[in-house]
Design goal:
Elements: E1 2-3, H1 10-24, E2 27-28, E3 33-34, H2 35-46, E4 61-64, H3 78-88, E5 94-95, E6 99-101, H4 119-125, E7 126-128, E8 138-145, H5 149-161, E9 167-175, E10 192-196, E11 199-203
Parallel strand pairs: 1-9, 4-5, 4-8, 8-9
Antiparallel strand pairs: 2-3, 6-7, 10-11
Helix pairs in contact: 2-3, 4-5
Length: 204
């Protein structure tokens, strides 16, 4: 999915509402199920048509992206819920919550462009716990991706422990900053996150 943060059209406003539902893992539909479960179910239904279907072949170990803040017992961790929902649909092999924050960083979505944490800042704030086995491949799982700095920082921290193991990333929704480029809520794509000095970019 995709959303635009400063919408002026009805589809854009609807996309932002869906983003809020995802961020809070709200109950949707009849019968009501969580947003992460509904998205995962829809992915399973459309899997053969998706450009990233080989990412979700049931073999990768899903690693949820940690929040920007320090984890608190019982707090909402949507990427973990999303990873579990993907497992329930048979789209990943297992879930390994092996990444956590050693210290908090600014939240990218609410930070001014010059104050957003870099990939290096994310890398330095994340600690990883080694698993007992070496998986065939990893799938980093997030709810919303903006420029990809968090994903890139997590991928490099994970690679420290598992050099040579392929690491892919998957997010339920991506940010389209320029509303002119927003084509709709349902917009599956496959892209690339690149590091340019200290800054990251995501295409598309």
């Amino acid at each position: 999915m995709s959303y635009t943060p400063r919408p002026t059209t009805e589809p854009g406003k609807n996309s932002k509402n869906i983003m809020y539902c995802l961020k809070s893992n709200s109950l949707l539909g009849h019968p009501p199920i969580s947003t992460t479960e509904r998205v995962s179910s829809r992915i399973r239904e459309c899997l053969d048509e998706l450009p990233f279907r080989e990412f979700l072949d049931g073999l990768a170990i899903a690693v949820p992206i940690p929040k920007s803040s320090l984890a608190k017992p019982g707090s909402l961790w949507v990427p973990l819920m999303f990873a579990n929902a993907l497992k329930q649909e048979g789209l990943v092999g297992d879930v390994l919550a092996c990444l956590s924050r050693s210290h908090a960083v600014n939240k990218s979505a609410t930070s001014a462009p010059g104050e957003r944490p870099t990939a290096l800042a994310h890398y330095e704030s994340i600690r990883a716990e080694r698993a007992l086995i070496t998986p065939e491949k990893f799938l980093l799982v997030d709810d919303v991706i903006t420029r990809g700095a968090t994903m890139l920082g997590c991928a490099n921290r994970l690679y420290d422990l598992f050099p040579g193991v392929p690491i892919m990333g998957f997010a339920a929704m991506r940010t389209i900053s320029d509303e002119k480029e927003f084509a709709g809520i349902t917009a599956p794509c496959r892209g690339c996150i690149t590091l340019h000095g200290s800054q990251t970019s995501r295409v598309p």
